[in-house]
Design a protein that fits this description.
Structural class of chain B: alpha/beta
CATH topology of chain A: Rossmann fold
Radius of gyration of chain A: 18 Å
Oligomer: heterodimer
CATH class of chain A: Alpha Beta
Shape of chain B: globular
Structural class of chain A: alpha/beta
Helix content of chain A: 25-40%
Strand content of chain A: 25-35%
CATH architecture of chain A: 3-Layer(aba) Sandwich
Helix content of chain B: 10-25%
Largest sheet of chain A: 6 strands, mixed
CATH superfamily of chain A: P-loop containing nucleotide triphosphate hydrolases
Number of helices of chain A: 9
Distance between the termini of chain A: 30 Å
Distance between the termini of chain B: 46 Å
Shape of chain A: globular
Largest interface: A-B, 31 and 25 residues
Chain lengths: 252, 475
């Protein structure tokens, strides 16, 4: 399938610790999938491995983005191929303004030497900041430096909206958000929904999925998906708790 | 040693074409002081220039001082021992006098400066340009209205010959011959550089620029600059430097003296991009009289070893001194830079902001000297030095020497060391930037607040230079 993000039998480790164990998941373009699971089951590792983080070693498996193998590629090549990762803990880049950072990311996607339309860029940037209820002065702030938790997550979603990837992984985007920020961030993500984009939302809590309603919900345990279902699965999990996963699903 | 011949030019094909600064043209010099240093080399240089006896005497005395002073290896670096003074060529010139139109500049030399973008910059934003090729200026031109206002912009030979009443008074006074071994060496064999006088109250809006180009191998460039801003005058001077990549060491040892008389302002900007074989050992100092301001903006990129500590002697009440410096030490390079602030009057203020970046095995060192004696009052100094390390083997050292006495003076010192983390690089690469682009963005961010102080054209140039350095440094 050339219009899906297909992860097949992925095994990955950090140091001598195996984390992903025959992990498989398919996200058809246009769908929103959620991965839920307790801490330490490998959710964030999955995000980093897919993005090509150098600390993780891939033993075997495939990660095909519209047919293109991502495993083994450099992080920037993966990014330009169309995979975006919204970080749980985005890095600070002192001295680099948000406007310049996103601009550099866009220029990196253009052909070398192609002209950059600064006017159109700022028009789009401002429109998307308005949608995320971000103050215009934000463009001149340094990337993530001195940001509150909510500001960092909004900044991630702003980048997502500006870079328009084919697929995006949102790693615990709800952590550190109050209810207002959660609503605004979710609206931003929902704007990205459409036939051209596939989204994978990683979360610990069901709360986020009230705002970003997923097409499919997957429960992750010990490095792989142990149960999948519709959006109602998130509610079931919330009601039964992660102990249910441990006792019922993991042993199955 | 070559005889003093008539002016001659020859067209030569371009020999090397690798990157912007790293190319050279065939060497064909009418005047060549030969290899090594001796009293007769000093005689030769002085004779070629047709100097008055007092200058020759000054040079010969300086040579003796140079020979008597030890190498500063004990506090700086033993790499200085790798300079072989007997293998260096001290004077090379094609014999022409500096001309006033680029058309008159010999083709090969003109091609050099065109590739470096000098004539274009001149058309765009400069009030005057001087271009030096090895030992002598080949081009010198200033806007006519400045000439009418009495602004002088020439080399040391012309300056000392035609305007001794202005220049001789300060020549060698801000930086005496015996200040250090390399100042003495420069005093013995100096050639080229800029002598500038801005008359009372004249404010030169656009910058004057000099460009120093080393073209020959095993060569020593010893330009000498003296800028005098008379009462209430203002000037910005910028210098750029490049050399091709040679296998053997090349020496650049300049002396720069600035004099800001009452209420005057001098801003001196350096963007050097020496190749990795150049020993860059430069002495720079200014005096600021009452209410005057001397500001050094110093960007050191490239070279094998740079030792440079621009200073300001705050001699008049209310004088201000400032050093803003950026140093980038790439693989195998050592940037030993800093600043000196000597407070010698009440109500004087000084500010030092130094940022250094160490890449690969590069090493950056900050040395600062701030001196406020107890007899003074209401003096203030602020010193900030920030270091950024890029790799595991990068190194940075800070040696601040601050001597502040008296009850009514204040000093503030801040230092920081930060690292570009692997997580930062991963984050930027996840947005689509290559590793080199990510590094150079991080470095540009680190120097961002200082670069904002630069004239626009230079901040663009500096950003580009940093990008070139960082792209070559990964992998």
């Amino acid at each position: 399938m050339s219009d899906s993000f297909i992860i097949k039998n992925l095994n990955a480790s950090i140091g001598d610790r195996e984390i992903l164990k025959d992990f498989s998941l398919t996200i058809p373009k246009g769908e929103v999938h959620a991965i839920m699971g307790p801490n330490g089951t490998g959710k964030s590792t999955l995000a980093k491995v897919l993005a090509g983080h150098p600390d993780y070693a891939v033993q075997s498996g495939e990660a095909l983005l519209d047919g293109q193998e991502l495993l083994g590629l450099e992080p920037d090549v993966i990014a330009r191929a169309g995979l975006f990762l919204a970080f749980q803990y985005p890095s600070e880049i002192p001295g680099v303004t948000i406007a310049n950072f996103i601009r550099a990311a866009i220029v990196a996607r253009q052909a070398k030497g192609a002209p950059f339309d600064a006017k159109a860029y700022y028009a789009e940037l401002y429109a998307k900041m308005d949608a995320l209820k971000m103050d215009r002065t934000f463009t001149a702030r340094f990337v993530n430096e001195g940001f509150s938790g909510g500001e960092k997550k909004r900044c991630e979603i702003l980048q997502l909206m500006m870079l328009k990837p084919k697929y995006a992984v949102l790693d615990e985007t709800d952590s550190g958000l109050d209810i207002d920020a959660l609503r605004i961030v979710s609206e931003g993500v929902n704007r990205m929904r459409g036939p051209e984009t596939g989204l994978l939302v990683i979360t610990h809590y069901q709360r986020l999925l009230e705002y970003i309603v997923p097409d499919r919900v997957h429960i992750m345990w010990d490095g792989r998906i142990v149960h999948s279902g519709g959006k109602e699965l998130a509610l079931e999990l919330e009601a039964k708790g992660y102990d249910w996963v441990k006792t019922e699903l993991a042993s199955a | 040693m070559a005889e003093i011949d008539e002016y001659q030019t020859q067209r030569e094909a371009i020999e090397v074409d690798r990157s912007k600064g790293d190319f050279k043209y065939e060497e064909n010099y009418a005047f060549d002081a030969g290899v090594g240093l001796s009293p007769s080399v000093v005689d030769y240089i002085s004779k070629v220039k047709g100097e008055e006896p007092w200058i020759l005497e000054f040079r010969q005395k300086a040579l003796k001082t140079f020979e008597s002073l030890p190498m500063p290896t004990h506090w700086a670096t033993t790499d200085l021992e790798n300079i072989h003074f007997d293998k260096i060529r001290y004077y090379l010139s094609k014999g022409q006098k500096p001309v006033r139109t680029w058309e008159e500049v010999p083709d090969d030399v003109k091609a050099t400066f065109e590739r470096l973008g000098i004539p274009e910059s001149e058309r765009k934003f400069l009030a005057g340009v001087e271009a030096q090729f090895d030992s002598e200026a080949v081009y010198s031109r200033m806007k006519e209205e400045l000439e009418k206002q009495g602004v002088l912009f020439c080399g040391p030979t012309d300056g000392l010959r035609d305007h001794p009443e202005i220049f001789r008074r300060w020549f060698g006074k801000v930086i005496p011959v015996g200040d250090n071994k390399f100042a003495a060496l420069n005093s013995a064999v100096f050639s080229g550089g800029s002598f500038i006088y801005i008359p009372k109250g004249v404010k030169v809006a656009q910058p004057l620029q000099a460009y120093f180009r080393i073209n020959a191998e095993n060569f020593g460039q010893f330009e000498r600059t003296l800028i005098i801003a008379d009462e209430g005058a203002e000037v910005t001077y910028m210098e750029g430097c490049t050399a091709p990549k040679f296998e053997t060491a090349t020496l650049h040892s300049a002396v720069v003296e600035l004099v800001a008389l009452k209420g005057a302002k001098i801003q001196y900007i350096t963007v050097q991009n020496w190749s990795a074989n150049v020993f860059n050992l430069v002495t720079k100092r200014g005096v600021a009289e009452e209410g005057a301001e001397v500001r050094w903006i110093d960007c050191n990129i490239g070279s094998r070893l740079t030792m440079k500590y621009p200073g300001v002697v705050l001699r008049g009440k209310g004088a201000r001194g400032e050093v803003l410096s950026i140093a980038l030490a790439n693989d195998g390079q050592h940037q030993d830079t800093g600043a000196k602030m000597i407070h010698a009057a009440d109500d004087t203020t000084s500010n030092i902001i130094a940022k250094s970046i160490s890449v690969g095995t590069g090493r950056s060192t900050y040395r600062g000297l701030v001196h406020i004696p107890k007899t003074l009052k209401n003096c203030r100094n602020n010193t900030e030095c920030d270091a950024l390390l890029i790799n595991e083997h990068s190194r940075t050292d800070t040696y601040p020497a601050i001597s502040v006495r008296g009850q009514k003076n204040s000093v503030q010192h801040e230092a920081s060391v930060s690292k570009v983390s692997a997580e930062q690089i991963f984050y930027m690469m996840q947005r689509g930037l290559s590793e080199g682009e990510a590094m150079s963005l991080a470095v540009n961010g680190f120097v961002n607040d200082l670069v904002k102080e630069f004239p626009m054209e230079y901040s663009v140039e500096l950003k580009r230079l940093i990008e070139l350095q960082m792209e070559g440094s990964v992998g």
